[in-house]
Write a structure and sequence with these properties.
The complex is a heteropentamer of chains A (about 650), B (about 100), C (about 400), D (about 160) and E (about 500). In chain A, about 75% of the residues lie in helices and about 5% in strands. Chain A is mostly helical. In chain A, helix 4 packs antiparallel against helix 11, helix 7 packs antiparallel against helix 9 and helix 12 packs parallel to helix 15. Chain C has one domain. Chain C has a two-stranded antiparallel sheet with strand order 1-2. In chain C, a hairpin with a 3-residue loop joins strand 1 and strand 2. In chain C, helix 3 crosses helix 11 and helix 11 packs across helix 12. Chain C is globular. By secondary structure, chain D is an all-alpha fold. Chain D folds into two domains: about 110 residues, Four Helix Bundle (Hemerythrin (Met), subunit A) (Up-down Bundle), CATH 1.20.120.1200; about 45 residues. Chain D is about 75% helix and about 0% strand. Chain E has 20 helices and two strands. Chain E is mostly helical and about 500 residues long. In chain E, about 75% of the residues lie in helices and about 5% in strands. A two-stranded antiparallel sheet of chain E has the order 1-2. Classes of the chains: A mainly alpha (about 650), B mainly alpha (about 100), C mainly alpha (about 400), D mainly alpha (about 160), E mainly alpha (about 500). Chains in contact: A-B, A-D, A-E, B-D, C-D. At the B-D interface, helix 1, helix 2 and helix 3 of B face helix 1, helix 2, helix 3, helix 4 and helix 5 of D.
Chain lengths: ~650, ~100, ~400, ~160, ~500
């Protein structure tokens, strides 16, 4: 039974891909058929995922692989394959479920868009690719799906192609992720070169298994870091995060699906998947690569949360919150809490999707208005959206008890606390928690509390097709907390393979109380600052310079434009100039020399040879005339000459001997 | 004065120079031919003399050469005289100095 | 006995030489040479005198009249009379003639004629001068007669004599070729140029009756005839005596000569005739061999002179019967008939020799000669040449 | 090889040769030419090569002299060969004679007497001619024919030329 | 079946004759007919080709000019067959790309026959004959049917390549006098122990290297390519980039690398540097281009740079490479040759379509095409992504193998070369943004979308791209044994 499922594990990504191909071939007008097909695809994928998930429940630490040859070059064969293990199964279910909700939501949201069918093609293509990433057993197959995911995100961000800003954002996303991918590609090459295979698990000889790791040896850290570049690019970590906020140009369901739940999570999933590389040769859990991961994670988390405080676009705030949450996940992975990181990832997938869809329905309600300063007091106008949004907000800021986010955040703080290298990340993360709570409450207040402002005059509740997914996602966030509480860490056990047993006592932990206090403090602080919000943002009022710094996203974009982009563009112009003038110049110089040489030989020929030959001819003619005088025609003169010459010869002979 | 080879050579030399004299100094075409014949005869005399005075039991090459040269000289004389006649018919004179048509 | 008779003259000679035995050998050589010369001259001068008169008598007989019979018995002393007449006659030399050449011509002609006689074997080892290349000597000397004739013609500074000399030379030169070529077969068969060897090669008789003379072979006969005709022409005898053709150019190159010079010309002509017929005898008629074995006892020189006189008779006989031929006919006859026939004799001789010299060879060579003769006669369309003259009277 | 004959012949030949080279009268020169060749033939006889002597007489005296004489006749109408023979040629001839003489007298090896040889019979000459020199014989034959035809063509009077 | 290669070479020639004789308006039809015929021949050649046997197959050997060692020897091995198939694919593709008169078709057919000849000839003199034969039609095609300043570009192209080939000829003469044979097989075997010695060896190497480097084109010698491709008509530039540049790479694999192994080892790093330069500088230059055709031209230099990187890594690197890396690099190079042939041709085809519609081909002359001609933009973006090296399409396979191989052997160079990959991505992203996105430019408002005939051309090619991208085994089977044999030769 297991064999059967693993061998055709490929069906899970294949169904959505097939769906997208079919929808692509449909004419643009067949709107409903397209949507239905996409939904069916997604449901099928979800069903299969649940089936696979149920399979992994049988034995703890379950792992089934199916490898096959993709192609043979020369005498070598390149093998790829699928793997089914708790990590993959959990991700499969999360992606499928969240994807389904978003599909349903986007039916409503995109209803009045003329390229409706094409949207669903791209969505199902994306989910297919994402599913492919999750189940890949070879780093190469993972990379292939990784790139397809990048392509899907490019297409989706630039969906409204007529908007130049969307196209620019798509291009920016594509290129920045591509930079990360290049690092990832080099990592793959290095790994393949060293360990001889790219298969993760190949019953003993895989690159993540002992044999492969030993073959890697010292270069494991470099490979890990290079692969981490890919993760940084895709998950929008510190240096390469600039594309994520711009990616909000795309439709909200896109942002929800891609920039909240799935794609950005791929980076974290990647680090989790190749964790043995990172942790190879770890002395009590600390390796250089992991420390790098932690430091990047910390920087990203703090920076993003600070910037979120200064943003006014509803979706950008959420984007920055995603960036900071991903930073947090990276930190948890870095400090060794893989299971904690994954759990937070899954939980975050749900409530971030919820928040995005909430924002989507708010925007839909406020007639495409994005600026939170123009909203307010939607509490009563859009009650369902308000309620679900509040639940999402509570989960995100880490309120424990009923909300999944809280427990996972708690778990992560627990892991950072026990990190041997240093305690700094632990404290910084605590600050991160406060900041998260702060900007979420700011957003809540701006949108739902206070009196209505311009855009929210005639706001109205979104139709059920949009509110239903919200409710589902909200309920999921709450239900999920059940399996996440340290009291009954079922998911943790599932992921790490240990058995989970119910124990309320675990709850009573000092860190739990500290985090609770921090969250409450954060919310209280938020209310304190933004209670009477009017016109200008209080923070801006208090610290204008700092606020403008944050609002402009720490001028990172401008920095990049002025440095990296400018220099490379200048390099391009330089090489073009070099090409046009230097190398071509060389060729022209050579041809010039050739011409000069030609001219030289021509003159030489004209003056030197011709003139010389003319002289010679006149000279010979003169001699000729002299000689002819000798030929008088008299025979006897000739004979006399003969006689004389004989004589001369005789005399000569005589004189010589 | 028993005839020694040297004597014969002297005689043939004198004959040769008389022939040369005739060729160089006489203006009449036929005399030139006579001169040439004399010179050839002198040469023959030399051949036979050397054959005769040469170390014996030798094959008669000298004689052979003399015979052949006589034959050839005869042929040459015939053609020479024929030419003299033909030239005479054309120039109406046999004075050699007049035949300078091949002047350079 | 026959041998002693045969060698009588040689023995006489040795007798004459005996007193000089002690002298150095060049003296001996000169003495023997002188003896030979005197003997030679004696015999042939008397023969000349005899023949000159006999010729006139025979011609007369042919013309049904007696000949000179007044001087001596049957006119035999007529030559003495002529000789005295010649000596007495005035010796005229043309005014602007080239005196030296005029004077030298007759001497040269006589000398060459006599020289030619020197090499002919008159009897068994009775050859005055036995030169290895005797035949060649004979012709070499024969060829100088042309020069002498020319001197005569040129020396007398007379158009007629010049023309006569030209004709004589032309005639002699063109017939010299057939003369020499006809001797080739004999020389080749014998394998030697000396006359003695040729005569010796002709001894022996088959069936005792038929002598091995070359004339008995077909090519020999043909060669003999051609040789004889060429001999006629060489010595300017009728019917080829065009140079002295009285009717046309007086006496040819001898017109300006009179007296003793004319006599020497006359004598030279006869001696030339003797020489040619003597050679004909040695070459074809077996020299001094007897016609049949039975008659070998007769001395060799007798046979030689018998054959010689027969030939001379034929000369005279021809002179008496044949009319004079035109100069161009002579020329054509020489080049178009004589020369090819001479070459055929040569071929016939070769065929005869290689067919084993027997009867088969005889027949083969006869066949070759016959074929060529017929072919030539057809080709040469002599009819037109010798056909009857068609006279065109002036209209 | 008696020296008396040698001396007589030598004097005769040289005198005749000199005469033929210098006599003003054409005909006399031609005749003297014939006499010279008779003298040379005598020399050959003296040297034991009878055959060559005979051939010499045969060819030169018999044919060439006659031809020369005929040529003189055919070219009679030209002016007599007036004027002294120009001395330039004479000087050169004498000089060459001097040179040759010097060469002959200088080489001592020539001062040898005639060794004894067996007679050179015509048969032997014939034999050598027909074996070793058969090709040259054919060539000379060809040459003579060519000369014959050539001379004829040169001399033939074209009917239409005159 | 014995004379299939000669038939392959002669049929296009016969076609050229036939076309020049036929009526002008039928010329393209006839040419396509002949192309179909040669393609069928190519396919039969592929079917009869025994992929497992190493060494030359279907060889035909005839005495040609024995005096100078020139022999008509043609034969096919994995690489040659691959390139023959590529030619029979690209040339009809080029015919379909544009309207063509009699002269155009005839010259293209002659060029096709020359290409077949070059890829199958095994004797240098014969190879050189076809090598030059392909040059002349290319020159004429550019000169007569080219765009503006075509004369200068055509002459530069011709003289430049010709100079290179002269150098190559001279060095081959040196080799001939040293070894007395022109046959590639024997020379390759002799090559292991060094064909020439001392300074002469370097001269010989320099001559052939110059000749082929100009043809590939390798970095410093590439300046003729942008001008030539820019002015050349679409069909010609498709063939030029699709197959003619492959002659250079084929030359490297067949001639230079086996004949001068130790010379290459000595200056290995320099060669690798050159390859990397041509990758990085070409892609950077492509980014700064304003003319689409010129941009694609630079990109084809970049892609050929990858081939050269792969080749030099295998042969030139001082490091003793593992068998897997050499085979990976080599098969990557062969795959890249084939793929780039299709993709570059496709790109030129699309640029040609755009040029037909707009009359201009500047990157700023278009805008928002996605709204007006979605199909054209869709298919064109597929071609762009394939050229970009997006996995799932054919470009990626070749590039991945090349990078895998060369990274293991020459890590530092490959690392720098990855920049080239990245910049290509930027170039295409910029191009897509400029062409497809934004508001529909009024100049392109009247653009017709793909006609049925154009669809018929594009769809099979793109499907082939996807097929190779997803299941490339059927291509690998062609040259796997050749790769194994060559790695043994180069090791």
């Amino acid at each position: 039974m297991t064999r059967g499922i693993v061998t055709n594990l490929w069906l899970i990504p294949a169904v959505p891909l097939a769906a997208s191909l079919i929808i692509l071939s449909l004419a643009n007008s067949r709107r409903s058929a397209g949507a239905v097909l996409a939904i069916i695809g997604q449901v099928a994928a979800l069903a299969l995922s649940i089936l696979a998930f149920s399979l992994t429940l049988q034995t703890p630490g379950f792992r089934a692989i199916h490898n096959f040859t993709w192609f043979t070059f020369g005498e070598q064969t390149l093998r790829i394959g699928w793997v089914l293990d708790p990590l993959a199964a959990a991700m499969l279910v999360m992606i499928a479920l969240v994807g389904l909700c978003i599909f349903i939501f986007s039916i409503g949201y995109m209803a009045d868009d003329k390229n409706f069918t094409r949207f669903f093609t791209y969505l199902s293509f994306f989910s297919g690719a994402m599913l492919g990433v999750v189940i890949a057993n070879s780093l190469l197959l993972l990379f292939v799906c990784w790139e397809l995911v990048g392509l899907a995100s490019y297409l989706l961000i630039g969906f409204w192609i007529e908007k130049p800003s969307a196209a620019a954002a798509a291009k920016k996303a594509f290129i920045t992720t591509r930079i990360g991918d290049m690092g990832f590609f080099l990592g793959i090459l290095w790994l393949y070169g060293r360990s001889g295979t790219l298969l993760f698990y190949n019953d003993g000889s895989g690159c993540l298994e002992n044999a492969g790791l030993v073959a890697l040896g010292a270069s494991a850290t470099f490979v890990a870091l290079l692969i981490f570049c890919g993760a940084v690019g895709k998950s929008g970590q510190f240096p390469l995060h600039v594309w994520l906020p711009d990616a909000m140009e795309g439709p909200t369901p896109v942002s929800a699906l891609i920039h909240a739940a799935t794609m950005v999570a791929a980076g974290v999933f990647l680090v989790a998947r190749v964790y043995p590389l990172f942790s190879f040769g770890a002395i009590n859990g600390v390796t250089p690569s992991l420390t790098v991961v932690v430091s990047i994670g910390v920087i990203t988390a703090l920076m993003a949360s600070l910037i979120a405080l200064g943003q006014f676009d509803i979706k950008r705030i959420l984007a920055y919150s995603t960036v900071s949450q991903l930073g947090l996940m990276m930190v948890s992975l870095g400090v060794g809490g893989v299971a904690a990181g994954m759990m937070h990832l899954i939980a975050h997938g749900f409530f971030k999707a919820l928040l995005f869809l909430g924002a989507g329905s708010v925007i839909h309600g406020c007639h495409q208005e994005h600026d939170i300063r123009k909203m307010g007091g939607l509490r009563r106008l859009m009650p369902i959206t308000f309620l679900t949004y509040a639940i999402g907000m509570m989960a995100l800021s880490g309120v424990p008890f009923f909300f999944s986010g809280g427990w996972t955040k708690e778990e992560i703080l627990h892991a950072t606390a026990h990190w041997h290298a240093s305690h700094l990340p632990h404290y910084l993360m605590l600050a991160g928690v406060v900041l998260t709570a702060l900007y979420m409450t700011r957003q809540m207040i701006y949108i739902f509390f206070g009196n209505r402002r311009a855009a929210s005059e005639d706001a109205h509740e979104s139709p059920p097709v949009m509110t239903m997914p919200l409710i589902v996602l909200a309920s999921c966030s709450i239900v999920l907390s059940a399996i996440l509480t340290p009291a009954w860490p079922w998911l943790h056990g599932y992921l790490t393979g240990e058995s989970a047993h119910f124990d309320i006592a675990v709850l009573i932990q000092p860190t739990l109380f500290v985090s609770l206090a921090l969250v409450a403090g954060g919310i209280a602080l938020g209310f304190a600052i933004y209670r009477r919000v009017a016109g200008a943002d209080p923070l801006e009022h208090a610290q204008p310079a700092l606020f403008r710094f944050l609002e402009n996203k720490m001028w990172l974009d401008e920095l990049y434009d002025r440095t990296v982009v400018a220099y490379s563009r200048m390099a391009a112009r330089l090489s073009d100039w070099m090409d046009r003038n230097v190398w071509d110049g060389l060729v022209r110089a050579v041809s010039g020399i050739g011409q000069i040489f030609g001219i030289l030989t021509d003159n030489f020929d004209e003056r030197g040879i011709n003139a010389g030959i003319d002289e010679a001819t006149t000279g010979t003619r003169g001699i000729g005339r002299v000689m002819s005088a000798w030929h008088s025609g008299q025979i006897q003169t000739y004979l006399r000459a003969v006689g004389v010459s004989v004589l001369v010869l005789l005399v000569l002979y005589a004189w010589l001997t | 004065m028993t005839p020694t080879l040297q004597l014969f050579l002297v005689i043939s030399a004198t004959l040769f120079c008389i022939g040369l004299l005739a060729v160089l100094s006489r203006r009449h075409a036929i005399f030139i031919l006579i001169g040439i014949e004399l010179m050839l005869a002198a040469a023959n005399l030399n051949f036979i003399a050397f054959w005769r005075f040469g170390p014996q039991p030798q094959p008669p090459t000298g004689v052979m050469i003399a015979i052949f040269s006589i034959a050839i000289a005869a042929a040459e004389a015939v053609v020479g005289l024929a030419m003299v006649i033909a030239v005479y018919r054309h120039y109406r004179t046999t004075n050699v100095d007049q035949f300078d048509q091949l002047k350079g | 006995m026959s041998d002693s008779l045969d060698q009588i003259f040689i023995r006489i000679k040795q007798l004459l030489l005996a007193p000089l035995a002690g002298a150095p050998d060049w003296v001996m050589q000169i003495a023997s040479a002188l003896i030979n010369i005197f003997a030679l001259l004696g015999v042939f001068l008397t023969l000349f005198a005899l023949i000159s008169v006999l010729e006139r008598k025979i011609l007369a007989r042919i013309q049904n009249r007696y000949g000179p019979n007044r001087v001596g018995p049957f006119g035999l002393f007529q030559p003495v009379a002529d000789g005295i007449k010649m000596l007495i006659k005035e010796d005229i030399v043309p005014a602007r003639a080239d005196k030296v050449v005029h004077f030298l011509a007759p001497i040269l002609i006589a000398a060459t004629a006599i020289l030619a006689l020197g090499v002919i074997p008159y009897g068994r080892n009775m050859t005055p001068f036995a030169i290895d290349g005797g035949i060649l000597f004979f012709f070499a000397v024969g060829s100088t007669t042309e020069l002498a004739v020319f001197m005569a013609g040129w020396g007398s500074n007379n158009k007629f004599s010049m023309l006569g000399a030209m004709r004589a030379i032309a005639q002699m030169i063109s017939y010299e070729l057939p003369l020499i070529i006809t001797t080739f077969p004999v020389v080749m068969v014998v394998g030697a140029l000396s006359p003695d060897a040729i005569v010796v090669a002709q001894n022996g008789y088959s069936f005792g009756v038929v002598p091995h003379w070359f004339v008995t072979t077909p090519w020999g006969a043909a060669a003999f005839i051609l040789f004889f005709v060429s001999g006629l022409v060489e010595s300017n005898r009728t019917p080829f005596d065009v140079p002295e053709g009285e009717s046309e150019i007086v006496a040819g190159h001898m017109t300006e000569y009179s007296g003793f010079k004319y006599a020497t010309f006359f004598m030279a002509e006869y001696i030339g005739m003797f020489a040619i017929s003597g050679l004909a005898v040695t070459l074809f008629l077996g020299g001094w061999h007897a016609p049949i074995r039975g008659l070998e006892f007769i001395p060799s020189y007798v046979w030689f002179f018998v054959k010689l006189s027969i030939l001379l008779f034929i000369y005279i006989w021809i002179r008496g019967t044949l009319p004079r031929t035109r100069i161009d006919q002579i020329m054509n006859f020489a080049w178009k008939f004589m020369l090819p026939m001479a070459f055929t004799c040569l071929v016939a001789a070769a065929v005869w020799h290689y067919a084993g010299r027997g009867v088969a060879g005889w027949l083969w060579s006869l066949a070759v000669l016959g074929i060529v003769y017929i072919a030539l006669s057809i080709l040469l369309d002599t009819r037109k040449k010798f056909g009857t003259r068609t006279y065109r009277f002036a209209e | 090889m008696n020296s008396a004959a040698f001396v007589v012949i030598a004097i005769l030949t040289l005198a005749a040769a000199f005469a033929s080279a210098t006599l003003q009268k054409l005909m006399h020169a031609a005749l003297m030419f014939a006499l010279t060749f008779v003298g040379i033939a005598a020399f050959f006889f003296l040297l034991g090569a009878e055959f060559v002597g005979l051939v010499q007489v045969f060819v030169y005296v018999g044919a060439v002299a006659v031809l020369i004489v005929f040529t003189i006749l055919l070219t009679r109408r030209d002016v007599q060969d007036t004027g002294k023979p120009n001395w330039g040629g004479a000087i050169i001839a004498i000089a060459v004679f001097g040179g040759l003489l010097w060469a002959i007298l200088k080489t001592p090896a020539l001062f040898i007497a005639a060794p004894q040889i067996e007679a050179l019979t015509v048969k032997r000459i014939g034999g050598v001619l027909m074996t070793d020199y058969v090709w040259p014989l054919q060539c000379v034959g060809l040459l003579l024919t060519a000369a014959l035809i050539g001379a004829l063509i040169l001399v033939m009077e074209d009917r239409d030329e005159g | 079946m014995a004379h299939i290669i000669t038939a392959l070479i002669l049929i296009p020639l016969a076609g050229a004759l036939f076309v020049s004789a036929a009526r002008p308006n039928y010329s393209r039809g006839i040419a396509l007919g002949f192309n179909a015929f040669t393609s069928i021949l190519g396919l039969t050649l592929w079917r009869t080709f025994d992929a497992t046997a190493a060494g030359l197959q279907l060889t035909e050997r005839h005495a040609w000019i024995p005096a100078i060692g020139a022999e008509y020897l043609v034969g096919v091995d994995g690489l040659s067959l691959l390139l023959v198939l590529l030619t029979s694919l690209v040339v009809p593709f080029a015919f379909l790309a544009q309207r063509s008169g009699r002269g155009f078709c005839a010259l293209m057919l002659i060029m096709q026959s020359a290409l077949y000849g070059t890829f199958t000839a095994q004797n240098f003199v014969l190879w050189f004959l076809f090598y030059e034969m392909s040059l002349v039609p290319a020159f004429l095609l550019i000169k007569i049917w080219g765009g503006e300043n075509r004369d200068r570009a055509a002459t530069k192209f011709f003289v430049y390549t010709f100079l290179g080939s002269v150098a190559m000829l001279l060095s081959f003469l040196g080799i001939y006098f040293a070894k007395g044979t022109f046959d590639f097989g024997t020379l390759a075997v002799l090559g292991k122990s060094g064909l020439l010695t001392g300074k002469l060896a370097w001269l010989g190497f320099a001559g052939i290297f110059l000749g082929l480097a100009v043809k590939v084109p390798l970095f410093p010698f590439h300046t003729w390519l942008p001008d030539a491709y820019e002015t050349a008509p679409t069909g010609v530039s498709m063939v030029l980039t699709g197959v003619l540049s492959k002659m250079g790479v084929y030359g490297f694999v067949r001639l230079l690398l086996p004949f001068f192994p130790n010379q290459i080892k000595i200056i290995g790093p320099w060669l690798l540097a050159l390859a990397v330069c041509s990758i990085v500088f070409a892609s950077l230059a492509a980014w700064a281009q304003r003319d689409l055709k010129r941009m694609v031209a630079y990109l084809s230099i970049n892609h050929l740079g990858y081939c050269m990187l792969g080749l030099f890594a295998v042969t030139a690197s001082p490091v003793v490479a593992a068998k897997i890396d050499m085979q990976a690099a080599l098969s990557g190079v062969f795959m890249q040759i084939f793929n780039h042939g299709i993709t570059a041709a496709a790109l030129f085809y699309y640029v040609g379509l755009l040029e037909q519609r707009r009359g201009l081909r500047g990157i700023d002359n278009f805008g928002g095409l996605m709204q007006r001609t979605p199909l054209l933009c869709g298919w064109m973006s597929v071609a762009m992504f394939s050229s970009l090296g997006l996995p799932g399409l054919n470009g990626f396979i070749g590039e991945f193998l090349i990078f895998k191989g060369s990274f293991a052997i020459a890590a530092s160079f490959t690392a720098v070369a990855v920049i080239g990959l990245f910049v290509t991505a930027i170039v295409f992203a910029r191009a897509m943004q400029a062409l497809f996105s934004g508001s529909l430019a009024e100049s392109c408002s009247a653009f017709p979308d793909l006609f049925r005939s154009e669809k018929l051309v594009i769809v099979p090619v793109t499907l082939l791209m996807f097929a190779i991208g997803i299941a490339p085994q059927f291509i690998f089977n062609i040259f796997n044994t050749t790769v194994v044999q060559m790695t043994r030769l180069f090791a």
